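Hi! If you just cloned this repository, the fastest way to understand the data is to look at a raw example. We've pasted two of them here, unedited. The first protein comes first, obviously.
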Amino acid sequence: MNAFDPAVFHCPGFFIKAAGAPFEKAGAAALRRRVFVEEQKIFRDHDRDAIDEVATCLVALSTYAHEADEVVGTVRIHEAEPGLWWGSRLAVDSRFRNVGRLGQQLIRLAVSTANGRGCQRFLAHVQMQNVPLFQKLAWAVEGEVVIHGVPHALMQADLASYPPFADPESGWLSLTRTGKGRSIPVSLPACHEVPALLPPLDQVHRGAA
């Protein structure tokens, strides 16, 4: 039995943050390969490109005994020209797609981080099956395009719905309960003194949406 299978064990929380440690960056690259090369078969060998050299990598980290354990979600953002930011390569591990709303939280961190860095317009090419999710998160469809043989919608985020966030390196800790989650800010770097950040379980249960 895999103790980390969400079907039998829900980890108490996820760190949502900018990748800093080598294992976080390596984990994000490995996850992208699993999703875009092995699962979706959009790319043959790897999905890396020139944007990776300038992009900020964001990750969702599962926890085990309150310590960061594994990269289970990722997205990257970059500034293409002054004020114009793009998000791309949003990926969530297949085992965690129904846990903690990780895709939504990565989108939130992506746009809010860019907004905190002077973003005036935030765009993304979104696979068609994900358009309804983005629309629920205050994104609008601007057009349609085919990328690597896959139909995408060009979408723009409503920046007013994403307050600027100045500390993506620390990010936040998202506590979960049966696939639902709530977030509490984390002012300390991931993995340090985490137990002190966890409220009593009865408070978590009362606060879960």
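Ok, and the second one:
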Amino acid sequence: MSKKRRPLPQGRTSWKKTAVTAIPAVLAVGAMASVMAEGALAASFAVSGTNFQVTSGKLTSQGLASYVHTDRDVGGKGHPVALLGLGRATLSDICQAAEVKTPLGTVVFKLTAGGDAGQVTADSLVIDAEDLVGDARFGTAQIGRDASTLDQVPGVQGEKGKFGLQAGDIEVAGVRSHAWSATGGNFRLKGLRLDVSLDGKKCF
């Protein structure tokens, strides 16, 4: 005859039961963190009502994947962009500037880093850009590949049947872009400086 299990004293916790219950939650959090690290959630938030400038003297990356995407603001308005996924990005310097209207007038929110302080680096950098200007060199390139089959940058894939392109190691000098969003992991911003000023100077 099996022994009856004694009820736990009040206030005590069954750690075995707690562990079993917690496993799915832990796995879900781990999976979410993995997806975020790969940049797959780059477009999961509503963008603001204005784009911003991004410049860099030189950008290099171990891999590029790109396809056409639509960012949406809180009002549901769509903004067509080229989603640019960079596997491991290194920038000689970076400047980001956005104009923001306030009761005091138009304020320029400006962030700079790199240059003499050292390079800027980021893992799984994803930029949703309206345009991109610069002098580029691609190690290898595949243009017109189905966006759902892109595999150069983990987590960066589009819809089946849509236009996409990807490349191996890339280098772009004189980068200028208007973007709606940018996300990445393990950002290293040496010499970071943030300025907010009325009618301030933008990046270009």
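That's it. A detail worth noticing about the second one: The beta strands are 52-72, 78-91, 93-102, 105-114, 120-138, 141-146, 163-188, 193-198.
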